[in-house]
Amino acid sequence: MDTERLAVLTAGLSLGPQVPRHHHQPAHPVARIRRPPPRYRHDMTANEVAQYTKEYEDWFEEDRKIPPEPAPIVDRNQLVSDQKQRRAHLERLAIQGARAGSAANALLMNYPIHCHAYLHITSLVRRLAPADSARMVAVQTVVEDTEGIANDLSIYNFPSTSSCSLEHLDALFSPGTVLAIREPTLKAPTQGIRPLLRVDSPTDIIFVPPNSPLLRGIAWRTGPKVAGYPMAPPISADAWRERGDDHFKASQWLLAAFAYSHALALDPNAVSIRLNRSEAYLRLKYYSGALHDAQGILTKVGSGDPSAYKALFRLAKARYGRREYSMAQNDFVRWKSRHPDDSAADSWIDRCRARLRERTTGVYDWSSLFRNARRQIRVDAADFFGPIEVRRMGHRGGGRGVVTTQDVKTGELLLVTKPFASVYASDLPNDQFTVTLDLLSRTKRERTDSLLLSRIIEKIYGNPDLHDEVFHLYAGRGYPAPPDTYPPPVATAVPVDLLYPKVDIDIAQLEAICTYNNFCPFRLDGPQMDKEAQPAGLYTSASMFNHSCLANATWYCIGDIMIIRAAEPIPTGTEVTIPYCVEESYLDRQAVLQKHMLDRCDCRLCEEDRRDGEAQLRRRHQLKARLDAATIMSAPLAEVRALEKDIAATYGRTRGAIRPLSALALHVVAEKLRMSGNARHMKESLQYDMQALECYGFVLAHDSGRSSSGPKLPIASERLPTATSIMEPADIMLRIACTYYMLREEENAARWLKAALWLTEVSVGSGKELFMMVHEETLQRMDMLSFAARVL
Ligand SMILES: C[S@@+](CC[C@H](N)C(=O)[O-])C[C@H]1O[C@@H](n2cnc3c(N)ncnc32)[C@H](O)[C@@H]1O
Asked: Could you tell me the pTM of the whole model?
């Protein structure tokens, strides 16, 4: 074997770390047993998780002081036989109908940057055994290097491999496949003595085709074919294309795209294969690759060629996927002019026009978006940037923030944005339960978080030009400061070669970015559905907004689009903040902000809370637990009244009006009073609910109903409360309306319904139609649907 040549070639491909072979001393394995890391239990409380992650860090610090040592050589046959056994076990489970990863998994994110170093790290390897994916995110297999030294290999975060079938893995990494690995880590085992080769990023894996110069002069010590697997991967472009077609017919888009990529590596000029790959990329939403392939075909063939017909349509769809609506529209129109009898482009042209209108005017059909979102969470809408810009803001972590570029009014639209990636309960595999512990924030993450990471990785993998949109987000002090401006300039589409990714996805940095910038979207169209598992989303432009519990802007989602509006009049040049959380208790807010890596919020609400003192904050937190208990509505009225008084007493007398937990407690007392059905109690409930609104920060009009009635709105403030979600106060207003309605005071009932409509209009930007949809269930329960339809 020409080791010098291998070293030169792998260096050229930036593979590494590469240690010259003559430094390798495999003959003297050191079988050092390390202390195992602390054990995780699935039922840990938040405090225990924080304690556990601390212990884990201590263990890690101790472990990483152990100096590098030669990697022990493990018997090749033993490794293969163990892997075959694991695989056979999973095959049996699959036959029985159970899925490979049905057990609960615990994953760690933001693992400290390190290398459990061994002196021998190899970067050119060949698959020896079938793969399995016993863990949700890792593909496990055995590989050998050219010298015949074998290792277990774990591939993390590879697209399409979380909870896929074993056959899928076989097709992706069939035995005999040659891989070149950038930055392989040879990890010390935490149990036993077998080191583990680990690859974290899919962009660190290069599939080496048989005609690659990298393989020239390379001989595998164990023979040209992998023993036990005489069926080597196909070696002709046609055979790969046929394989790709089969996968395509079975809707296995990634496998198809891989097979076509193998075919193109052998025959780069094959137009039909490139055309097929562009369609496979479109299905995968790898728009950059789809666009590039389609464009490549159009430059090669004449416009009359049948391939051009398909390529132009694919090019236009890829542009639409890339949100290049104007260019997409031009391409669809161009296509239509060549095929005037075909109506396929008509609806696409309409969609392009609608998106361009939304983007330039900020005018959306909110009601139809709301309706669509109830059927399908991910809705089609363009992004809109209102009068805001990102500016340097040295006193904020990450150094940036958002300011207004002109005076804005309450309710004005500041941003509409689709997520870069999102995950909802319905996206989670129902046979797997994965707990993710974040070592950075020392918290347990949502079940959706690990899948979110995979989705971001896959999106960049197939759209390398989007790398900076994510990697210019703040990743904490452990990484270079992000640029002062955002978003980064729009990049042009680049080719996507799945066999040799040209983009570098740094997983450790990406995990940190997710910790700092993750959103838990609050959906107007389906808050109930999200109780099963909190959704998770990466909204890149929205990530530029800093937090305040008493923010001057408010946000919510319709389907997966996030909408940010001014919650009060904001003068030009003022920082715009949004609430990252709306918890009533200071300690709960701290816990959520910890997940966003924000130690201390300096808003007025937090300042006042801190002035109340630690003892009162703790007491308030305990009282909240009683208020939240499922049994509270069946507790005697006197007990609920006493609880409300106790909560009120935890707030200092001199502080401002905003007391979110009192708001909640007052509303619970009002609900209890209303439940009695007694007219005196019902009247009293009105006072409690109006006080609750004041505790959220509303100013009531003099004629709010406490004294005489009148035609005007019972609310006198121009500010939308942001210490709570917009649904709570609207709900209270509806309860007040319902109580008046039951007391036969229809004029007052109508005024409070109008107040709820005003609140929804200002915060959601739409009129009666959307109001009726958002509150339909509540109005129905209150038997006020037709009254509301009549008086609004
Ligand atoms: C989603 S980012 C916000 C944008 C960030 N400032 C940037 O430059 O990219 C969240 C991070 O911003 C910082 N941040 C947000 N709100 C803040 C606040 N009120 N005070 C100080 N830093 C804040 C914290 O470091 C937090 O982890």
From this structure: 0.89
